[in-house]
TrEMBL record:
Gene3D superfamilies: 3.40.50.2020
Residue span(s) of domain Phosphoribosyltransferase: 137-227
Family according to the record: Belongs to the ComF/GntX family.
InterPro entries hit by this protein: ComF/GntX_DNA_util-trans, DZR_2, PRTase-like, PRTase_dom
Record's protein name: ComF family protein
CDD domains per record: PRTases_typeI
Species, as recorded: Hymenobacter nivis
Pfam families noted in UniProt: DZR_2, Pribosyltran
Double zinc ribbon domain location: 10-42
Length: 230
């Protein structure tokens, strides 16, 4: 009783805010408020046949991808941008894990867990990892692992530090990352169907480079999942 009263008092003085809309979370709400859970712009690409998925078309002729999946549609100045900003720059790693659990549960309910053997996050360079404190793709992979009941592993590494991709066009993004990824342990991915994950898919250049490195290490098949797509 006392603990509940103290929790209510602390919540009144220092309310927990929904990272998507910045409104106070009600009791029982975790990570996202009920309104945002209902109104976020979900893509539902996992409900489409692979050949009808518009996201998959971005990789045609570039990388053989079985499933191209993204949980949310990125909208500038919207809730998804606030979620991603809090994750990447606000230290809200639990947001990435929570989104991964939610999306993993949806993918599992759609029967897609059987199509993957291993979840692999896009790596950060050690310099950027030290600055940020965690890899946002890894915390998303952790959540997906729980939701899909599949293992995840940091099976890729970045061999060089690169400039930010934010203001580059597609050709510049590809040139920036084309040769900077390699398998950290080829035996971990050889013969396995890999679900490669990142936070945002824009041009797909980083995911293409990572997918190519996984295939070169012997991965049997590549699928892709991100928190959001632009």
């Amino acid at each position: 009783m006392l603990r509940s009263w103290l929790a209510d008092f602390v919540g009144l003085v220092f309310p927990r805010l929904c990272p998507a809309c910045r409104e106070p979370l009600a009791r029982g709400e975790a990570h996202l408020c009920t309104s945002c859970r209902a109104e976020l712009p979900y893509t539902d690409f996992h409900r489409l046949p692979p050949e009808a998925n518009p996201l998959g078309r971005r990789f045609w002729g570039k990388l053989p991808v079985r499933h191209a999946l993204s949980y949310l549609q990125f909208v500038r100045q919207g809730r998804v941008q606030r979620l991603l900003h809090g994750l990447k720059y606000g230290g809200q790693r639990d947001v990435g894990t929570a989104l991964g659990r939610l999306y993993g549960a949806e993918l599992a309910a759609a029967g897609l867990a059987a199509d993957f053997d291993l979840i692999v996050p896009v790596p950060l360079h050690p310099r950027k990892l030290a600055k940020r404190g965690f890899n946002q793709a890894e915390v998303f992979a952790e959540g997906l692992s729980a939701g899909l009941a599949l293992p995840w592993a940091p099976a890729l590494r970045r061999t060089a530090h690169t400039d930010t991709q934010t203001k580059k066009n597609r050709a510049e993004r590809w040139d920036n990352v084309a040769t900077v990824f390699e398998a950290a342990d080829a035996s971990a991915v050889a013969g396995r169907r890999v679900l490669l994950v990142d936070d945002v898919l824009t041009t797909g250049a980083t995911l293409e480079a990572c997918g190519a490195a996984l295939l070169a290490a012997g991965a049997l098949e590549i699928s892709i999942a991100t928190i959001a797509c632009a």
